[in-house]
Amino acid sequence: MPLPPRWVRRLLFAPGVILLAVTVLTTVPVWALLALAASPFVPGRLRPLRLLWIGCVYLVWDAAALVALFVLWLASGFGRWKRTPSFQRAHYVLAGWFLRVLFWQARWTLRLSIDVVGTDPDTALPGRPELVLCRHAGPGDSFILIHSLVNWFRREPRIVLKEALQWDPAIDVLLNRLPNRFVAAGDGRDAAVRQIGHLATGLDDDDAFVIFPEGGNFTPGRRVRAIDRLRALGLERMAVRAERMQHVLAPQPGGVLAALDAAPEAGVIFVAHTGLDRMLTVADVWRELPMDKRIVMRFWSVPPEDVPTGRQERIDWLFDWWDRIDRWIAANRDGVTAE
Questions:
Q1: Which domain holds residue 94?
Q2: Domain annotation covers residue 273
Q3: Which residues contact 147 (CB under 8 A, 6 or more apart)?
């Protein structure tokens, strides 16, 4: 379904979410009673009630963010100064505050915990620009990563995202005011690579440019298709390496190479995580409520002088790191902390 024009999203979607949130809040006791009545007939601990609560919290969270963003728009001279450093920083602060609220609720409702293991405390702290390369698996992992960068490491992330995420009004408004790019599904990989190169240009000391080199969430089917695509391109050696990796997709080097070329002064941070990666479908998420999950994250930092300079050397280096991430995931899925 094509994304509506921006003026439609601003004039209809955003006010509609706020109106819907008010409506839900005034009728939530009725829905809560219905969910509570249905709970004994559904496996799990109060799953319908938990799902209702999560939905209500996210809706109110979205609406509150839109109101706060509207206030910032007014304060910035009806958007005239929204690109100035002070208002850009205000938007990052606002994003950090709302992400803290979201994860506070996730810990309470879903029984989620997030731990960073085996990582130096200053790995991602400001001091130089960083390219952050993260595996992509499980629901909400991009939220988790941005939350950690903004709230734990005081970074200002930049990211290239799928256009479909703009269906969420708060994400649409916030991320379009910050240095991010949305790519449509039909734009093709070349367009995405160009956007990555453009966005990675001019990073400063507290910027973190986020890339998910796999191009999508891990599933067994996508893993097989990624391997088949490498073979179809005649890249047999890369296909063989991808076959040895069981928990990640073969990384697509185009965007990483573009970012490295655009930001030669940047360090590189590799991020692995595990805990939600076995939840591949909506049915998986429903079955696991409450999740009772421990999400484990690991950051590795590579200084710019240790990044290879040749194209093929960089591709091999990227696959080496993805192999290391795959082995780390295999160990941590069994509750063992691996370096």
A1: 6-332
A2: yes
A3: 96, 99, 100, 102, 103
